[in-house]
Design brief:
The chain is of the alpha/beta class. Helix content is 36%, strand content 22%. The N and C termini lie far apart (71 Å).
């Protein structure tokens, strides 16, 4: 067995991939800044032209906020999913399945496509359907996932990798990884729980648990009530639920905003700061501001 303090064998590979993602992020930011400057320089025109400029200005401004928010912890996870080849059999027998190569899906705060390679997905937005196995896969119900990897980084540098093997054969194959492996993603979760408190609310996209994910991605209906004791993450789940809805139903909710009502102005403002990291419009107010006299 290797030394427990030995670096993960895939550390350099993941660093190269992360650097590629940041290159694309810089390109997206530069392109958006250029487009925004051009729009702001335009003046006059018909009422329709002015309205279009306002729409473009808002869109580019929100995109820049989204890119800036993704700067820290751009990519935080990866799942290796086995591609299964289903073959038909004679006499109406059950189809045969054969496991082929695995597909690596990287999970992050935003989605990034490779425009030079037929718009291949380089990074999946955590809210995308293809990213859900990262949060839900277990050894009992792997959903095709053979490996879940938590990627920790700081200042565009990969600092640690923690692997969880959901397939016995894959686990045996990589038995020489040693302590780089984790159990049910507990290493990343414990790091988040033990992080120094700053008094500010942070997003939990890298450590969402299956129960929380079920609430966040539940069917879009009228009202959703999240109940729980103090400190159980109700507010964080509710904010991520709103972010998920605005991503999944963006066409229906394109003109909608988010109103955050908290018991105090400070609590609602703190929640709003967390939500603005996704580049979304949000208004906040204390409960007393909307209370009506008896």
């Amino acid at each position: 067995m290797p030394d427990d303090g030995a670096p993960h064998p895939d550390l350099e590979h993941e660093q190269r991939y992360l650097s590629t993602l940041y290159t694309h992020l810089d390109d997206l930011r530069a392109y958006t800044q250029t487009r925004l400057k051009r729009v702001l320089l335009e003046t006059g025109g018909t009422p329709q032209a002015r309205s279009e400029r306002e729409s473009f200005t808002q869109m580019y401004t929100e995109d820049l906020a989204k890119y800036d928010a993704a700067e820290h912890g751009l990519c935080f996870g990866r799942v290796d999913v086995r591609e299964v080849d289903v073959r038909e059999t004679e006499h109406n027998e059950a189809p045969e399945t054969e496991g082929n190569d695995t597909e690596a899906r990287y999970i992050g705060r935003i989605g990034i496509l490779d425009e030079d390679n037929d718009y291949e997905s380089l990074l999946l937005d955590w809210r995308a359907p293809l990213a859900r196995p990262f949060y839900l896969a277990t050894p009992a119900t792997p959903d095709g996932v053979v490996l879940r990897r938590h990627i920790r980084s700081r200042n565009r540098t990969v600092t640690a990798l923690n692997d969880e093997y959901l397939d016995l054969d894959t686990a045996r194959k990589h038995a020489n990884v040693g302590s780089a492996g984790g159990v049910a993603g507990e290493s990343a979760l414990l790091d988040a729980l033990n992080a120094a408190r700053t008094g500010q609310m942070h997003d939990i996209v890298a450590t969402i648990q299956s129960e929380q994910d079920a609430i966040i991605r539940s069917e879009h209906k009228s009202v959703l009530v999240v109940q729980g004791g103090p400190g159980t993450g109700k507010t964080a789940v509710a904010l991520h639920r709103a972010a998920y809805l605005l991503y999944t139903y963006r066409k229906q909710l394109a003109k909608s905003g988010v109103l955050i009502v908290g018991p105090t102005r400070r609590s609602s403002t703190t929640s709003a700061k967390c939500f603005r990291r996704w580049g979304k419009r949000v208004c906040c107010c204390p409960l007393s501001a909307i209370s009506t006299p008896e």
